[in-house]
Every structure is written in structure tokens, then in C-alpha cells.
Design a protein that fits this description.
This protein has 400 residues and is an alpha/beta fold. Helix content is 36%, strand content 13%.
């Protein structure tokens, strides 16, 4: 039964974020989803540089719209001495400070955990960087693609061959770091309930993505051969990947065990004798002989449409999927049936938005507008004790 109290887990928690690009904004947007009051501090006149990545969403950036709903935007020139009283006022009432500025920038601004902890002992400080706050790479700049490379991710992607690497189609390293920052902040809030004290969180994009690389790393344990590049197929399990049907559309399918292999041969390929073929009667053999098996599968599928192939696979209880483009995902019948789409406001009007994964029956996630640059500056400064004259003075000096 739905609890209609609408009390969210992070209602009353205030987050100050010095953020740009994806990792920190993705983290703080999820905190906002849970009810946190997130104040996004941006550079006057420019803002988060992700605002300028593209203009695909009615003149706004696709990355920015995705990662910044339910926040308040306050413009502030952090390099000015006049910004210090504003930051002090913000941090005085804050629970969490998140930042992913350039390496060392927060410390130079007096915003490291060590510099803040004595004044704000309950404040949780989360720093997100490419390589972490120590080690030989600590001052090295890092972007998503560069971390995909350093973490070995690119060695596992793309088509067979040494030059076949392909990057992930979304910001996977940023997303990984944002997720670990998010969960670490939740843990730090629980820890503070026990101790009464804030703590410092150091999240590295490299370490976040290397954690996700656990399978290929252990596969190549102690100098063993790494998993080969296999395009959209699985590198070691076969058949597992895309196969072309007769209408020139691909179907994604995957087999996990010998029972499924026998069912696939009899019910899908309608060639039950293939199950005992010496080339294919164990997964390692199918993987070694994947070219020959791929030809046999394509031959069986060429008289069928993609939907007919999926019908056979469903009947045989073989895992499968459509190979969807973005348009098909926007109209996906499963998402529509589960009412996963809602709308959020923005400077360009209402926009569709996916409600956060994970349906909790006790509350509904916060789904407030995407902010315009500096949209909430005046109201926030007044809320934090500055009068109208103070606000106008800061604006004239280009501090806000």
C-alpha cells in the first residue's frame, strides 16, 4: 500500500555543490531525488560548463537537463574575497559539501575538509576527482574518456583486433564516480547519526571504474590472457550477442547453460541434432567455433523477421532483447506500462523525465524543475541573511 505521507528520506538535508560536468551533478541530483535541498553554486554569467555542451533539449544541454533537476542555482565568483561571507553563510546551515573542481582548487579556496571541520564539525565533505587526493596522479586532469582508457575499459570494448577499441556511448566513468559519491554520502549521513560528526569522502573516477572492471581483471589474473574484444557479443559466452534476422533487423539473445543450448537448437533453430554437434556441445567449444555457429544461426534466421525470432526465443524461454535506438526507448512499452515517465519544469517548459530507478512505496521522489543559471540567487541570499542592499552590491561587483 502506498504511504501518502510524502516524507522523503533526505527531507531537511541541505547540500552545497561546487559542481560541473557529470560526476558531481549526477551524484547531487540523486540526493535531490531523495528530498535533499541542493544548492548548485555556479560561475556568474557562465555557470556549469555542461550547460554549453549542446542545445538538443529546446535550446538546453542534454547532459545538463539529465543531471540537474530539483536543484537551486546560485551564482557566485568563488575567487573573490567578497564570496567568502556567502560561502560561510551557506556552509553554516549545510549538511554536505560536494565538489569536483580542478585538482587542488577547493583547498586553494579554503574549502577542504581539514580547513572546514573545526568550524563546521557536522559537515560532510565529498571530493570527486579523476585519480583521488593522493598518489602520483593526484594533480592530473581527468575526463571520462581518459579514465575509460586508464581503467582498462577500452581494452575490452569494440571489434576484435588490437585497434578495435570503442568508448562507451555514455559517460560511464563519470556515472560510476557519481554513484559511489552518492552512496558514500548516504553512508556518511548514517555515520553522523552515530557519532555526531561529519567526515571526508575521497571519490576517484579511476577507482570507481576499476571496481566495475572486476570480471575482466580476474579473468586476466596473474598474467593470463585478457578477454578478447567481441563487439556487441560476449567475449567468452556464445551465442550471446546480436544476430541478424531476415528483415535486416538485429535481435539480441543470450544463452547461459547447456539446457538453454538444447532448447535453442530444438525450438528456435529447429535443428535439435545441432545440440550434440562436437563443435558446439559445450560453451567453450561454441566460443572457439563462434564463426561457424554464427553462420548457422544467421541461415536459420534469414527466413524470419526479428519479431518472429523473438517469438521463438520467448517460447523457448531464451533471454532476448530488441536492439532499440533512442526513439524506441522513449516509447518503450514496459516503461509506459509501469508509468515510469513524468514531467519536470525547465526554463524551456515542461520536459519528460524518467522517475528514479527503484520504486519505494513509502514516498515519491522529488521531481522539481531544471534551474536556469542563477535563478535562485536572490531568494537564497535573502534566506541566508543578506538584505536587498547586500544583494545589489554583490551584483554590481559581479560577485553573483
Amino acid at each position: 500500500m502506498q504511504n501518502n505521507s510524502h516524507k522523503r528520506p533526505l527531507d531537511g538535508i541541505r547540500v552545497i555543490s561546487l559542481e560541473h560536468a557529470i560526476a558531481a551533478p549526477f551524484c547531487t541530483r540523486q540526493l535531490a531525488d531523495l528530498g535533499a535541498d541542493v544548492i548548485k553554486v555556479e560561475r556568474p554569467g557562465v555557470g556549469d560548463f555542461a550547460r554549453g555542451y549542446d542545445q538538443r533539449v529546446r535550446g538546453m544541454s542534454s547532459h545538463f537537463v539529465w543531471t540537474n533537476r530539483s536543484k537551486k542555482s546560485l551564482t557566485l565568483n568563488l575567487k573573490s574575497d567578497d564570496a567568502e561571507p556567502v560561502m560561510d553563510a551557506l556552509l553554516e546551515r549545510a549538511d554536505v559539501l560536494v565538489q569536483n573542481l580542478a585538482p587542488g582548487a577547493a583547498a586553494r579556496l579554503g574549502l577542504s575538509f581539514e580547513q572546514l571541520h573545526e568550524r563546521y564539525p557536522r559537515l560532510i565533505v565529498c571530493n570527486i576527482s579523476g585519480y583521488g587526493e593522493s598518489g602520483p596522479y593526484q594533480d592530473k586532469k581527468a575526463y571520462d574518456l581518459l579514465i575509460q582508457s586508464e581503467a582498462g575499459f577500452l581494452s575490452t570494448t569494440g571489434m576484435p583486433g588490437s585497434n578495435g577499441m570503442v568508448k562507451a556511448g555514455c559517460s560511464i566513468a563519470d556515472i560510476a564516480a557519481g554513484m559511489y559519491a552518492y552512496t558514500n554520502i548516504l553512508s556518511a549521513l548514517i555515520h553522523r547519526q552515530h557519532t555526531g560528526l561529519g567526515s571526508s569522502i575521497d571519490v576517484s573516477m579511476l577507482e570507481s571504474l576499476v571496481e566495475w572492471m572486476g570480471y575482466p581483471m580476474y579473468y586476466a589474473f596473474e598474467g593470463a590472457e585478457p578477454p578478447p574484444r567481441a563487439g556487441a557479443s560476449h567475449s567468452t559466452i556464445y551465442p550471446y550477442g546480436p544476430f541478424l534476422a531476415g528483415d535486416n533487423r538485429s535481435v539480441m539473445l543470450g544463452l547461459q547453460n547447456e539446457r538453454e543450448w538444447q532448447s535453442f537448437c530444438s525450438a528456435v533453430l529447429q535443428q535439435p541434432e545441432l545440440a550434440e554437434d562436437e563443435r558446439f556441445n559445450a560453451n567453450y567449444k561454441r566460443s572457439e567455433n563462434r564463426d561457424a555457429l554464427r553462420d548457422l544461426i544467421h541461415e536459420a534466421f534469414k527466413s524470419l523477421t526479428a519479431e518472429e525470432v523473438i517469438g521463438r526465443l520467448d517460447e523457448a524461454k531464451i533471454a532476448n532483447a530488441h536492439v532499440n535506438d533512442m526513439g524506441a526507448v522513449w516509447s518503450h512499452p514496459q516503461l509506459e506500462s509501469r508509468q515510469r515517465w513524468t514531467h519536470v519544469g525547465s526554463p524551456s517548459g515542461d520536459l519528460p523525465a524518467l522517475t528514479p530507478p527503484g520504486v519505494n512505496n513509502a514516498y515519491r521522489p522529488r521531481m522539481d524543475p531544471v534551474p536556469g543559471l542563477g535563478q535562485h540567487t536572490d531568494e537564497l541570499l535573502v534566506e541566508f541573511g543578506f538584505n536587498e542592499n547586500d544583494v545589489q552590491r554583490l551584483r554590481r561587483a559581479s560577485i553573483i
